[in-house]
Amino acid sequence: xxxxxxxxxxxxNHLEQRLLAFKPHFSPLPSKLALDKPARCNYLTQKPLxxxxxxxxxxxxxxxxxxxxxxKCDAYEAHRSQxxxxxxxxxxxxRQAAAQKLKIGVYFATWWSLNxxxxxxxKKVLNAFPFPWLTSTLSLAAGSLIMLVSWASRxxxxxxxxxxxxKALFPVALAHTIGHVAAxxxxxxxxxxxxxxxxxxxxxxxxxxxxxxxxxxFPMPVYLSLLPIIGGCALAAVTELNFNLVGLMGAMIxxxxxxxxxxxxxxxxxxxxxxxxxxxxxxxSIMSLLILTPFAIAVEGPQVWAVGWKNAVxxxxxxxxWWVVAQSVFYHLYNQVSYMSLNEISPLTFSVGNTMKRVSxxxxxxxxxHTQVQPVNAVGAAIAILGTFLYSQVxxx
Length: 397
Fold this sequence. Notes:
This protein has helices at residues 2-21, 32-36, 42-46, 64-68, 92-128, 132-152, 163-189, 192-199, 202-212, 220-238, 245-269, 277-299, 302-316, 319-342, 347-369, 375-395, and strands at 49-51, 75-77.
């Protein structure tokens, strides 16, 4: 019995020495289990993991010394020399910049869509009722009524204005009135596509006005980008099948007036009382309506309107009334959204956005109204739009 116990202790001591002498060995080669079962150990066979550091082993308890002796283990793939970083930190400035770009993008998409709808209904009304002064007046009246009702019902907060605000708004309203009437006169004489091809030259007017009247200077690429815009518009005008001088002049006057409107608007929105883009355009509509109404009555007159209205209803039917309502409401909505955009960007960027939207207007009007376009005319329009794109790239505003 004693010899048996002595033999057992000898074997036990021998095993203990072997265990203490054993050192773990991690092989980078795949194990036999991984080779036999690739579906379950696919990651280990392709990218085995290594333990980069280890601390001393110890008995765990809740004391600070025990917590300090816990093992810290960083895993990394075989082809990496450092542990993998998985934390993604986006700073607040980057997040705000992305949100601002998204906001402006939504404004632009909504603005362009509403503008297409307005142009379609506006041309339908002018084809049946060729009185652009009254049509322009109704557009401003609808917007003014919508905002007055919104303020009275407190759907929208009424702006806080004073006499200085209205004085600063007057030149903006005057330019807006001229540009609105001139564009409507142009569309009553020529196709919608032709009007907007000519109006795509607005960046050229913006640069020229800023250079010669405001004393600003631009890099040479900006001036060079105006050449295809002007050349494309000239080619489109020469090859227009239904060319009309009044329609051409109306579009060009509208360009010049809207450039001044945008410049004055940006200055007016940065001075005096703080009025947001939506309320700013509402006040602009009200003042423009007051300016336009007496001129519309003097140029066309209620008697002519009554005869024209009767003929339009007899020709089109009750749908004509809805056409007038639609063109008036959508005019206010698309301009309201555009002014919300202007509140966030510069006048030149606004002019670029105002020009790029004309691509969708030109294409949609050609499809809906079956406008005949010669190949040379289409090339001129494409050159003008390309010039506008180049302009938007070189301005960097």
